[in-house]
Design brief:
mainly alpha; about 75% helix; 15 helices; about 350 residues
Length: about 350
Amino acid sequence: MPSENRLFYVDAIRAYAILLVVVSHVFAPVCAGMNDYPRAVWWVFNVLDSAIRPCVPLFVMISGKLLIGSAREETYLQFAWRRFSKLLLPFFSWSMIYAYYEARMQGNDFDAGRSVLEFLQGPTEFHLWFMYMILGLYLVAPFLRRFVRAAAPSELAALLGLWFGSLVLEFFFPGYAGSGPTLTLLNYGGYFILGYVLDQDGFSRLEAGWLIAISIVIVVFNAAGTYLLMAQNGGTLDEKFYVGIAPLVAIYAAGVYLLMRHADYEKILAKAPRLRGIVSLLSLESYNLYLIHVLFLWLFTKGHLGFVLSENTGGSPLAGVPLTAAMVLAGSLALSVVLQRIPVVSRLLVIP
């Protein structure tokens, strides 16, 4: 869709989310290496790890706003076909690429049949779990759209209250509701509806101030809680406070969504007019960047291009992380743009 016909805050939220994803995957080894880095350096990235946690919820909320709030009239099959026809083939192709790469890195032969079976059972690489979740939400989105159109505000509030209550129970009693893809769909499905609901209301400067303050408190609290858990476990990473379905992360993500939804973009773009094009590009390429970026992360950090670029480049993550993240992002974006210009290949590897 041409950028002038898009809502800029939608692009801004999606661009912000993909940037958080890329950067977080670059500095993840630092956060997991509590005993491997100077404590002050580790704390910097622990706080950053806490700060980036709305990334996946933001993706889901903006999808909920766009799909549940859409006025387009279409049958269920039309709705599903429009989404799956764009996403499924590139998702499958990149799943096979990662399966091949994993096999080669482990010194094994690539088994296509086994890789296809693995794809049907779950992700072939750690970050691809998101694709299963979002495709599952696309399957139920038409039903959710009918519900929210007929539901009173009090009914939507009650539903979100039940959802948040389930997140609280899962936090304090892990596994009480079991596990698996159905639970993941229910947990993130709440964000789908939350994005639609939050998009309906106005916003005041006082509320913005409170949300900023609450967000800062949550970031610091979750970082401190994670430190205590890791210290008790000898430095082993424990993401109890950081998972996308943690209650405080849900509150924090809702606050970020509202702040970005109601930001004064006219004033921002007046001072930095080039920002519009950059944000729109990142937004349009967000799914492709999500699929591709781990490939470049491997290529750089494992030295497969003849040199090593990692979180430790320059002798410290304070230098290595921003440099590696910028290169991963640039490489992923460049590859996506090139692939889109190649007939047939573009349909296999790029989400339009």
